[in-house]
């Protein structure tokens, strides 16, 4: 049921993206906003559902396999969208998008993160699958199992590794590039998923752990917003 749900989300987002391109091509800002919002919604909604499958046996093989598979699918079905504020910062740094358009993209990503969280909460209330039972009672599902300083360093390191890899494989055929990036993300999730959640995406972190940002805003913004953004700038500065 969870796999069908995620597949349905991807199909619906694909249709919305295609319709947006056809109907709003002349409205550049609105088209950009909606495309980025739909794409980020897909990633956030699917990842929210994937988190419920983390304990499916055999552990952790099932969760890692699903992480790899859906990361590849996201890469193949969402071309042209960054779905990550850090990726948008890179476009702004390189001059590929203006400050105004970059801010519009980031706004779309956080709107999508909130919408995805609300949508998945509604789906979980329907209790369509066994993992949905009790999913809403978790509150702040704290992913940090180590100190804030250690979590900051890990998210910073993971962000640097991911961004360096993305920059190094830019010239590779997109069909192969998504597999390289998906493999790295899967390895990072395996290495740090039980420590910080290995998120390295500010919008995704907000969608997965919204309640935590309300209760512990400073610590969570430091680890899940500032660390990956700093990792992006360090990578761009080095290169």
What is the secondary structure topology, with strand pairs?
Blueprint lengths: L1 H22 L4 H25 L8 H17 L7 H9 L5 H27 L22 H21 L5 H19 L9 H7 L1 H6 L1 H22 L1
GO molecular function, one term: channel activity
Subcellular location: Membrane
Main location: membrane
Could you explain how this protein is built, in words?
The mean pLDDT is 89. The chain is built from ten helices and no strands. The chain has 239 residues and is mainly α. It has a single domain (1-238), classed as Glycerol uptake facilitator protein, CATH 1.20.1080.10.
**Order of helices and strands, N to C?**
HHHHHHHHHH
Distance N terminus to C terminus?
Answer: 44 Å
Q: How many domains, as an integer?
A: 1
CATH architecture: Up-down Bundle
Continuous helix count: 10
The profile of the biggest β sheet is: none
CATH fold description = Glycerol uptake facilitator protein
Please give the CATH class.
Mainly Alpha
The name of the CATH superfamily reads Glycerol uptake facilitator protein
**Helix fraction by DSSP (H/I, runs of at least 4):** over 70%
Taking pLDDT < 50 over at least 5 consecutive residues as the criterion, the unreliable ranges are none
The radius of gyration computed from the alpha-carbon positions, rounded to a whole number of angstroms, is 17 Å
Shape: globular
